[in-house]
Write a structure and sequence with these properties.
Length: about 280
């Protein structure tokens, strides 16, 4: 039997995914051999494509847009984060069945740790209430912030998401138009997809505490509009590449039992010019 681990990311679009680069760097770091490919796949095709992948030796997969929710149906078991998020980003084949995980939120926490941001006791303002917000809320609330406020363009969507997570910790929701109920947030998380159309959400810096920092979940060119807004208001700002690498490190650990060191991989992906590959592309 080959000692090379057969892995893939499934999604659409997937051509510009950075995951093969990241997982090959992890494998080099740990002296392992992986064959990590990109497989373009629609929601309808997913069950067949995943079965074909397993038939040719695939043992682990990442799911990205638009497959994260559809992936739930493939799984014999789900970890707590996947159940909370109602989405899977990582699949592992074991005992003849797929097991589902969601490493997005824990990946964000890993990255916040890497850059020295403490979430315990933080007042967190999340702008955006889409798929990625639902993936990070469970782990973020588990990290014991003082509170989390979700601000969304579509108010009802934010309220619905906040209600789904209120049993896990202090969370409320507001509309992006009207702003949040307070003005002392210490951590701003930019979780909208606006950066992909060259825009930044309409945030009032007065909503933030003077020492607040910002974390965009977008990276590459999609990060630039929010970065410009942060620069304009002298708010320290981090991009979402570290979260991407963090969630990948946790997926790699699920498949191999070994957790790679993510910090050098963040630097390496930046150094090899990820903008050329991942720039305007959504998902991993
Ligand atoms: P979704 O499509 O599920 O959600 C999009 C969010 O953006 C919604 O809250 C939506 O609000 C908001 N939005 C879209 N257009 C506007 C607008 N014109 N004005 C105000 N708000 C708007 O996307 P995801 O949640 O999956 O992804 C969000 C971002 O996070 C993407 O850019 C993606 O690339 C990035 N991401 C990064 C990851 C990483 O590892 N770093 C992982 C996954 C995603 P509404 O509900 O009103 O439509």
């Amino acid at each position: 039997m080959s000692s090379t681990l057969k892995l893939a990311v499934f999604g659409d679009p997937v051509e510009h995914s950075l995951s093969p680069v990241i997982h090959n760097l992890f494998a080099d770091q740990l002296g392992l051999s992986v064959d990590y490919s990109r497989i373009r796949c629609s929601i309808d095709q997913l069950p067949d494509r995943i079965a074909q992948f397993a038939a040719v030796g695939g043992i682990g997969a990442n799911l990205t847009l638009p497959l994260k929710h559809a992936g739930l149906r493939l799984c014999r078991s789900l970890d707590r984060a996947a159940r909370q998020a109602r989405a899977v980003n990582t699949l592992k084949l074991e005992d003849g069945g797929w097991h589902g995980f969601n490493t997005d939120g824990a990946g964000l926490l890993l990255d916040l740790g890497r850059i020295g941001v403490n979430t315990r006791g933080a007042r967190i303002l999340i702008v955006g209430a889409g798929g990625v917000a639902s993936g990070i809320l469970g782990p973020l609330l588990g990290a014991q912030p003082a509170l989390v406020t979700l601000l969304n363009r579509t108010f009802e969507r934010g309220v619905e998401l906040a209600e789904r997570f209120e049993h896990l910790g202090p969370i409320d929701a507001g509309s992006l138009d009207q702003g949040p109920p307070r003005e002392d947030y210490t951590l701003l998380v930019q979780a909208t997809s606006l950066g992909h159309s060259g825009q930044s959400p309409n945030i009032d810096p007065a909503w933030l505490a003077p020492d607040a920092i910002a974390c965009d979940l977008n990276y590459g060119e999609a990060h630039q509009p929010f970065k410009s807004w942060c620069d304009q208001h002298t708010i320290p700002c981090h991009d979402g590449l570290g979260m991407l690498v963090g969630q990948a490190a946790l997926a790699f650990e699920i498949w191999t039992g070994q957790r790679p060191d993510m910090a050098p991989v963040v630097d390496e992906v930046k150094a090899i010019g990820f903008r050329g590959q991942g720039s305007g592309v959504r998902g991993r």
